[in-house]
Design a protein that fits this description.
It is built from 15 helices and 11 strands. The chain is α/β, with parallel strands linked by helices. The longest helix is centred in the C-terminal third of the chain and has 35 residues, at about 270-300. It is globular and about 60 Å long.
Length: about 350
């Protein structure tokens, strides 16, 4: 099978399981996002990739950036947003980003640490785990700037981020306690921090690409997901996993990564337009993400999904068990920087 065919099979799988309620498989799932302008005359093109569906507010931001940049640049710069893994999976696109074949990427926070360990700070448990902490982190230059430059040696800058909500456990049986969680085989992302974390927590887990999840969940290969209410709701995982434990140990992010060499070649006025627009629309998307999470939880409850809140005692136990992960990733990220982030954000 050719790589191109394989990538399109992934796209078809994502369309089938991510399509929002009310959409039809017969139509183009991105038809409503077609630009109302002709981009063929643009002087510069910024290809921006993502693997998910713009029903998620943190992904829809790509289209909002596209339209606003086009208007502000008077048609000189076109943001060619490509969601739904049109350009391949995240590992493939990260390589293309470094080479400059793709100029931008809304990369999931769990995958971003594969590019640079410093980006993994947002995945560490109970460090940047609330919407309030996330905003404080983004708006403090002493905290955000080292994160932004974590992949500088790869020629990549993290210019901003949006989100997809608070991490917890979706499962096919009730998980009310840490003891019950240890009976579940959780799917986790292909992410180094997550692997270390679940080992430290002494929990069963399976590392699995996202397109493989629907079948694995339906057949019982896995019976739990490490994910967020937004994603579980929009991608219909709640149709099978009818329980969700709100652990709230991390915020899921889409980190806006940019090829620095391409950016530096843009005229100065277009650089400002692009960065200003990304900053404004990312902040707006983060606000909408919190509202979307509340809406998805309400909709899931109405549909019969049961939600549990992990006890503070169990959450504290998870933090204690994660001590080796803090130590290992502190060395990779920078111990002083990690300590500053934890202290300033009130961890």
């Amino acid at each position: 099978m050719s790589r191109r065919l394989f990538n399109w099979l992934i796209v078809l799988a994502l369309i089938g399981f991510i399509m929002p309620a009310g959409a039809t498989a017969e139509g183009d799932p991105l038809a409503s996002w077609t630009p109302e302008f002709d981009p063929s005359g643009a002087q510069y093109t910024y290809i921006l990739s993502n693997v998910d569906h713009p029903s998620i507010e943190g992904i829809a931001v790509g289209y909002h950036i596209r339209d606003k940049v086009w208007e502000r640049s008077k048609g000189r710069l076109y943001v060619d947003f490509r969601p739904l893994a049109q350009l391949g999976g995240e590992r493939d696109v990260l390589q293309k980003l470094k080479l400059g074949a793709v100029q931008g990427m809304l990369c999931s926070s769990v995958a971003a640490a594969n590019l640079a360990p410093g980006l993994g700070i947002v995945n560490l448990p109970f460090v940047i785990n609330t919407f309030e902490k996330l905003e404080a982190f983004r708006n403090d230059p002493e905290l955000f700037e080292p994160f932004s430059q974590a992949a500088a040696s790869q020629g990549v800058t993290a210019v901003d981020f949006t989100g997809y909500g608070s991490y917890g456990w979706a499962s096919t049986s009730p998980v009310r306690t840490l003891e019950e969680a240890r009976e579940v085989n959780f799917r986790i992302a292909e992410a180094p921090v997550d692997t270390d974390l679940y080992k430290a927590w002494d929990m069963k887990f399976t590392v699995m690409p996202w397109p493989d999840v629907p079948q694995a969940l339906q057949t019982g290969v896995i019976d739990g997901l490490d994910h967020t209410p937004i994603v579980c709701g929009i991608t219909r995982k709640f149709n099978i996993a009818r329980y969700f434990t709100q652990v709230d140990y991390a915020q899921g992010l889409y980190i806006h990564l940019m090829n620095r060499r391409w950016f530096d070649r843009l005229p100065e006025d277009l650089r400002k337009i692009l960065l200003d627009t990304i900053r404004e629309e990312s902040a707006r998307a983060r606000n909408l993400t919190q509202l979307q999470q509340e809406a998805q939880i309400a909709a899931a409850r109405e549909d019969g999904v049961t939600f549990y809140q992990l006890s503070e005692q169990d959450r504290q136990r998870l933090k204690e068990l994660a001590a080796p992960v803090y130590e290992k990733w502190g060395r990779k990220i920078g111990e002083d920087y990690l300590a500053k982030v934890r202290t300033r954000l009130g961890d």
